[in-house]
Amino acid sequence: MKRGQMEVIGLVIIVILISLGLLFAARFTLQDKSGKEVFTRKGLAASVVSAALKTTMPATENCAPGVPGEARPKLGGDLLEDCAVYWDTRTTGQSYYQCGGKHSCQVAEEILQKLFAATLEEWGKKYQFKSELIEGDNTRRNLVELPRGGRECRGATDRDSSGLFPLQTESGLFIETILYVCD
Amino acid sequence: MKHPTRKGQAQMTETIAIIFIFFVLVLFGLLFYSRYQKVSLQQEAEEILATKAMEITVRTLFLPELLCTKGEAEPEENCVDMAKVEVLKERSEEDGTKYGGFFREGKRKEAYYFDLLSNSRITLQEVFPEAEEPIVLYDNAKKDWTKMEPTYFVVSLKDWEPDWPEPRYRFGYLKVEVYS
User: Fold this and answer.
1) Is B84 within a domain?
2) What backbone torsions phi and psi does residue A177 show, to the nearest 5 degrees?
3) Least CB-CB distance to B54: which of A20, A39, A58?
4) A12 by DSSP, 3-state: which?
5) Distance between CA atoms of residues A34 and A73, nearest Å
6) Which of A21, A25, A42, B58 is least surrounded, with the fewest CB atoms within 10 Å of its CB?
7) pLDDT category, B77, cuts 50, 70, 90?
8) Quick one: closest CA in A to B53, which residue?
9) Side-chain half-sphere of B9: how many Cα atoms within 13 Å?
10) Quick one: how far is CA B34 from the chain centroid?
11) What is the ipTM of this complex?
């Protein structure tokens, strides 16, 4: 065999070795996301929102002081709706529900913060929660946003959402709630 | 007899050096490959455990022994009926069994729940309005476990109070720890 041919064979071997190395590297980097991670994020986001919106306030909070009997409003259907209806009076603290003497927007935010702190934050999950009031002309108002002004999940690649949880209030208002969980 | 020339000696040394480098590269390749195999086997084992954790979590969420039901209507999703949990808790306290209230009715039931929930520990934790002590629903953790995979799932805890027409929903979570 001529020297030139030997060199060509050497080059081919080097190219094959480099290609194998690249293949291995690609396999390492392009591995699929773990199914469990996606399941956990999606399931968590949806279950947190659905359970949070259903949660009822305890009687001890005395949520409707002027009304005879006890009032146990639900966080989603009652408090968020009340927050939307009495949005303009949130600075004066006037709303139908007055759990612990506070405006329903403040109560909803505090309770949600408490729920997220005991679950998602405790488990080291980043999240972004938003409950928006959508008005007739499609303008949106942030009723509750947690963490405040949060950009926790913006741009995150491993991000899943609870899906939209729409609430139609009795007064014809429309509230949209969503939670993003990301790693 | 022909003596090797200087040029021939140099070529021989070059060939030996190339072969040496080649074998060093092959050795590196083999080392890398065996390491990769070991890591991928570990990953596979973790994946299997994670899948098992997912399955057990879903099974737990849909156990009729826990799920919120409304007569013949569709059951409520992500909801645990606290009246049912109370019964399980009482049974467990009466028996003092390590399995929680599920296994009261002897070996046949034990096998039935082992098929469903395997070597795991399932606890229910209330968060709001009060952070109560966690309730152990099922405890069949392996003694000599090497890996444990926890999965959390948030649920509503539904219960009824006397003199109140509507159910009350509290906020809590299920913690499913799967052992291998």
Assistant:
1) yes
2) -120, 140
3) A39
4) helix
5) 39
6) A25
7) confident
8) A36
9) 4
10) 27
11) 0.79
CA–CA distance from A128 to each of A183, B93, B173 (Å)?
A: 12, 41, 19
In a domain, B43, yes or no: no
**Does residue B128 sit at the A interface (CB-CB below 8 Å)?**
yes
Query: First vs last Cα of chain A: how many Å apart?
Result: 58
Q: How many domains does chain B have?
A: 1
User: Tokens representing B22?
Assistant: 């080649």
Strand duo A174-182 + A126-134: pairing: antiparallel
CA distance linking residue A49 with residue B138, whole number of Å: 26
* Residue B108 DSSP SS3: helix
- Give the Cα separation of B155 and B79 in Å (integer): 5
Does A36 contact B78 at a Cβ distance shorter than 8 Å? no
* Domain assignment of residue B103, yes or no: yes
- Cβ separation of A118 and B153 shorter than 8 Å? no
Q: If you search the block for the tokens 């469990």, which residue do you land on?
A: A36
Domain extent, residue B82, equals 48-179
> Which DSSP letter does residue A78 get?
I
């994670």: which residue's tokens?
B50
A13 Cα to chain B: minimum distance (Å): 10
B128 Rama sector, left if φ>0, alpha if ψ -120 to 50, beta otherwise: beta
Tell me the count of A-B CB pairs closer than 8 A.
79
Residue B1 counted as domain residue: no
Condensed to tens digits (0 to 9), the pLDDT of residues A5-34 reads 888 888 898 889 889 888 877 876 666 656
